[in-house]
Structures are given as structure tokens and as C-alpha cells.
Design goal:
- About 20% of the residues lie in helices and about 40% in strands.
- It is built from three helices and 13 strands; from the N terminus they run ααββββββββββββαβ.
- The chain has a six-stranded mixed beta sheet with strand order 11-10-9-8-7-13, with no helix packed on it. Strands 6-5-4-3-12 form a five-stranded antiparallel beta sheet, with no helix packed on it.
- The protein has two domains: about 1-35; about 55-190, Lipocalin, CATH 2.40.128.
Length: about 200
């Protein structure tokens, strides 16, 4: 009987030891991390999925902000919708619109201005894609001004509170820019004459 008592004490102690708990916890955490990973296997390689681009989408325009946020404007490969996404590298913080269908194109406005002639004529190219969401106007801008030496090209987002007119600018890293404002896509959205500079 003494032998059984000693065995039970040893078994209970082993189950309650910190090492056993930490191993168990580590296993649960590892499984949780594996479930959270967004990756797909292709040709034997693990490829991390991009939360900003769905499998049926093509990138119209994308860039990184100077504070390491991601900006994507994507379209369905069959032009069924247009969508804007913004967030950290791992998480979409804002998507517009929420409903992805043909009506999405008319929720965006596009305006532009071009003046050629280089520095002598103060050459200028302005492109704006904008939308309104929850009382704010979001304007994705891509601009070029020939007279601003060293900083000719700019990309970013302006966010304007419609009631107070308070404006916030999120500057983008122009070197990270991919894509632009293709005519065949911009013709599908509302045309506007509003310039934001």
C-alpha cells in the first residue's frame, strides 16, 4: 500500500510541475500560431498570403506610407468591383466599400490635371481618386510639380472631416509605388473636376 501512495504522490507532483505546464502551454500556443498563419503552399514553397489582395483581384495602385502602413486599390480581374484597403502589413484596418459589386465603381471619384512644358512652364501632373466614408473624404493623391526640386513626385492620402474641414495628410513613400491611375479603370468611376492642391 505504501508503494501505491508513493506512486500517486510522484504522479501528482509530475502533473503539477512547472515544466509540464509550460510544455503544454507551448504546444497550445504553437497550434494557435499555426492556425493564425496566412500561408498557402505552391510548388513545394510556402507563400505568405497578402490580406490586401484577394485571389480574384489585380492591383491598380499600391504604396507604403512613411509610417509603414499599406495602401492598396484593387479591382476584380473581370472588373466586377473596385476596392480600397488600408492597414498594417498583417491586417486590413479599413476597406471601402464593404460590399464588393459593380456599384462600387460609382462610389469613387477621379479627377486630374496636366500641364506640360517642364520647369519653364511650371509643368504639373495631378491625379486624385477619392471617396466619402463615415463623414470623411479620403483622397489618394499622386502629384508631380516640376518646380519643386528634389521632391517632384508625391503620393499619399488626405483625409478631410466634412463638418470641421480638418485635414490630415498621410505621406507615402513614392519609391514604393506600384501601378497608378489607368485610364480604362478611371473611366469606370465618377469623373470630377475637384482638385485638392
Amino acid at each position: 500500500m505504501k508503494g501505491w501512495s508513493i506512486f500517486l504522490v510522484v504522479a501528482i507532483t509530475a502533473c503539477n510541475s512547472p515544466e509540464t505546464k509550460s510544455v503544454k502551454t507551448k504546444s497550445i500556443e504553437t497550434v494557435a500560431e499555426m492556425k493564425e498563419e496566412d500561408s498557402i503552399e505552391s510548388s513545394g514553397e510556402m507563400i505568405e498570403a497578402n490580406p490586401f489582395i484577394l485571389p480574384n483581384e489585380l492591383v491598380v495602385l499600391s504604396f507604403q506610407t512613411k509610417k509603414n502602413k499599406q495602401v492598396f486599390v484593387c479591382r476584380d480581374q473581370d472588373n466586377k468591383y473596385l476596392v480600397y484597403r488600408f492597414g498594417s502589413k498583417a491586417k486590413v484596418e479599413l476597406q471601402f466599400p464593404n460590399k464588393l459589386d459593380q456599384s462600387s465603381f460609382k462610389k469613387f471619384d477621379y479627377s486630374s490635371y496636366f500641364r506640360g512644358g517642364g520647369v519653364e512652364n511650371l509643368g504639373l501632373t495631378l491625379d486624385y481618386l477619392s471617396f466619402t466614408n463615415s463623414g470623411y473624404r479620403y483622397v489618394i493623391y499622386k502629384t508631380y510639380a516640376s518646380e519643386s526640386v528634389g521632391n517632384e513626385d508625391e503620393i499619399g492620402i488626405r483625409i478631410m472631416h466634412l463638418k470641421t474641414n480638418k485635414e490630415t495628410t498621410i505621406e507615402g513613400d513614392f519609391n514604393s509605388l506600384e501601378g497608378g491611375f489607368p485610364e480604362e479603370i478611371m473611366e469606370l468611376v465618377n469623373q470630377s473636376e475637384t482638385l485638392y492642391d
